[in-house]
Specification:
The protein is α+β, with helices and mostly antiparallel strands and about 230 residues long. The relative contact order is 0.18. It has a single domain, classed as Electron Transport, Fmn-binding Protein, Chain A (Pnp Oxidase, Chain A), CATH 2.30.110.10. It has 7 helices and 7 strands, in the order αββββαββααβααα. Strands 2-1-5-6-7-4-3 form a 7-stranded antiparallel sheet.
């Protein structure tokens, strides 16, 4: 994935995106071509700081056979995103754009067919997505059904080999253009997550507004203003 320093987030922001938007597309290739499965994944680190993604497949998923032969894959996380229209701007000479936050991790997948690994994966993933709820749900509430369902899944732990992330969130926009985009997004409840991420990525600029009167400049191929 193409990345630039302007749109590259710090590690904490990458971890927060995966925690908040854990559904990833796990893509691999094999003799039959490409395979892709959407899966919620949990990011974890070992004592040495190595990163891993924890998840589970349905045992009936044919991608498991491909991964058994070739365990390399890429996990693609997509956070908030949306089209930004020049129709929202006071300066309508600006170009439209699409803001987004994405993380791509090259991984090596290792499956564990044991029931204990499946239970651990289910518990840990559920704890993550239920955290903070006033009446958080636990897998134990399934009762005896839990142990009848576990044989249908297989857990995996994928070692992260390389991470690339692009958070394109208006860092290259003039302050007045950014403010107009945010005002428009604030009018759409569905875009609240994108607006929050844009504000976080531009917190210092929004606080100072020192560049609000700078003349228009074109965007160069690296994402910076020329």
């Amino acid at each position: 994935m193409r990345t630039t320093p302007l749109f590259t987030p710090p590690p904490d922001d990458i971890a927060n995106l995966i925690r908040t938007w854990p559904l990833a597309l796990l893509v691999s290739t094999g003799d039959a071509g490409y395979a892709a499965t959407p899966l919620p994944l949990l990011l974890e680190h070992d004592a040495q700081g190595n990163a891993f993604l924890l998840g589970h497949f349905a045992r009936s998923n044919p991608q498991l056979d491909a991964l058994a032969r070739s365990p390399r894959a890429i996990a693609i996380f997509l956070g908030p995103h949306g089209y930004l229209s020049p129709s929202w701007l006071r300066d309508r000479s600006q170009a439209p754009t699409w803001n987004f936050a994405t993380v791509q991790m090259q991984v090596e997948v290792a499956t564990d067919p044991s029931p204990a690994a499946a239970l651990d994966a289910v518990r840990r993933l559920t704890d993550q997505v239920e955290r903070g709820r006033t009446e958080a749900w636990s897998p134990d509430e399934l009762g005896e059904r839990l142990h009848r369902l576990l044989p249908a899944i297989i857990a995996f732990r994928a070692r992260v080999l390389h991470t690339a992330a692009t958070f394109k969130l208006g860092q290259n926009e003039r302050a007045d253009v950014l403010a107009d985009f945010l005002a428009a997004l604030d009018g759409d409840p569905l875009q609240a997550p994108l607006a929050r991420m844009m504000r976080a990525a531009n917190a210092r600029r929004l606080a100072s507004r020192v560049d609000g009167d700078r003349p228009h400049r074109a965007i160069d191929s690296s994402g910076n203003r020329a």
